[in-house]
What we know:
By secondary structure, this protein is an alpha/beta fold. It has a single domain, classed as 3-Layer(aba) Sandwich (Rossmann fold), CATH 3.40.50. It is about 40% helix and about 20% strand. It has nine helices and seven strands. The chain has a seven-stranded mixed sheet, with helices on both faces. Strand 6 and strand 7 (about 210-215) form a beta hairpin. Helix 7 crosses helix 8. The longest helix is centred in the first third of the chain and has 19 residues, at about 1-20. The N and C termini lie far apart (about 75 Å). The relative contact order is 0.12. Residues about 1-30 and about 220-233 have low confidence and may be disordered.
Amino acid sequence: MMTVFKKFLPILAWITLVVTTAGCSGLAKVDVSRVLTSGRDGWQYPERVIEALEIQPGDRVAEIGAGSGYWLPWLSEAVGPEGRVYAIEVDSKLVANLASFVADHELQNVEVILGAYDDPRLPHESIDLAMTVLTYHHIEGRIEYFSRLQSALRPGGRVAHLDDRPDAEPPISWFQSEGHWTDPAAVVEEMNGAGYRRLSAFDFLPAQSFQIFIPGSDESKQAASASDEGSGA
Length: 233
C-alpha cells in the first residue's frame, strides 16, 4: 500500500503546486485535499449551492434529471416536512433506482416522477424552483422544453442550471466527461429564447457554471422599462 501511495506523491505535489500558484484563476478556488478525500462533495460544494438557491421551508422543488439521487437529501432537508421535492428522470430503470434511494433514505417529502424527453410532466403552477445539475446539455430542444416548463412555475418561480464548463482545468477537469458541458453564454442565450432572463450567477464552483433564471426575457423587460419612461411613470 505504501509503495502505491508513493507513486502518487509526485502527482499530489504537482496538484498542490498548481493550485497554490494559480493566482486569480479558477483553480485558486479548489481545495485539493477536499477533492481527494470527499469525492463529489469536494467539487460540488452542496452546502453553498443550497444556500445560494435560497430555498424556503415549504417550497416545492423539482430536480430535472435527478440521476443517482445525490441532491435529494439536500433538497429534502431544505424544503422541510411541509415542502415537496420532485425527482424527475426519463428512464424507467433510473426511476426505479431513485424510488429505492428515496425509500432507503426515508425521504418522505420526495416524489419520483417518470418524465418525458420533451416534458417534465409537472402540474400547472406546482413548483417554486426547477433545478438541473449536469443535465442541461442532455436536453434536446431546450428552448421549447424550458418554454413549456414555465407553466409549472408558481408566481416568483425560478429555474437554476448547474452544468460543467468547457474551461475547467486539472485537477477538476479529471472529473468531467469530455463533451458533457455547455458554454455559460449559450445557456443564457437559450433561456432568453425560452422567455427567461438571468436573475443571478455564481462563480464559486470550480468546474461548473451556476445560473438562476426567472420568466420574463431581457427584451420584454427593456420594453416594459421603455413604456414606463414614455408614460412618465
